[in-house]
Write a structure and sequence with these properties.
Layout (H helix, E strand, L loop, with lengths): L10 H20 L1 H4 L16 H6 L4 H7 E8 L2 E8 L6 H11 L12 H5 L6
Antiparallel strand pairs: 1-2
Helix pairs in contact: 1-5, 4-5
Length: 126
């Protein structure tokens, strides 16, 4: 008897699922305490991750924000935020790509997989 197995998902879908699932775990571990489980942020202190326009327009700088942090004034969803987010420079590029895949595909965002090569090529914070 011979068994043949096939997957209903192609490799890109499996890759996305891996990044998303690992990103969710990393988000819960490193980001959720401040940005909340639903990405809503914390009032006027911590910006939400639900502003899809901000997330899309700043997609090139998102890895820098995660790795290096950010300090100073930032406008998100038309509201000013002036605080400091510590960076997490201990995360590997693949982990940053995973957490960004989760964040940019959650909370109303739908941007697809955030490739690891984009993390190494991040451009300035603003």
């Amino acid at each position: 008897m011979t068994a043949v197995y096939s997957s209903c998902q192609d490799s890109s879908q499996l890759n996305y699922a891996w990044y998303y699932a690992n990103g969710k775990q990393l988000y819960e571990q490193h980001c959720q305490n401040c940005h909340n489980a639903d990405g809503s942020g914390l009032g006027a202190l911590i910006p939400p991750l639900t502003d899809t326009v901000f997330m899309k327009e700043r997609s090139g700088s998102l890895p820098c924000l995660v790795r290096d942090g950010v300090k100073g004034k930032m406008i998100v969803g038309g509201k000013p935020f002036d605080g400091e987010m510590p960076g997490n420079n201990k995360l590997a590029d693949i982990d940053i790509a995973a957490v960004l895949t989760y964040v940019t595909n959650s909370f109303g965002n739908k941007q697809g997989i955030y490739e690891t090569k984009r993390v190494g090529a991040c451009v300035g914070v603003r």
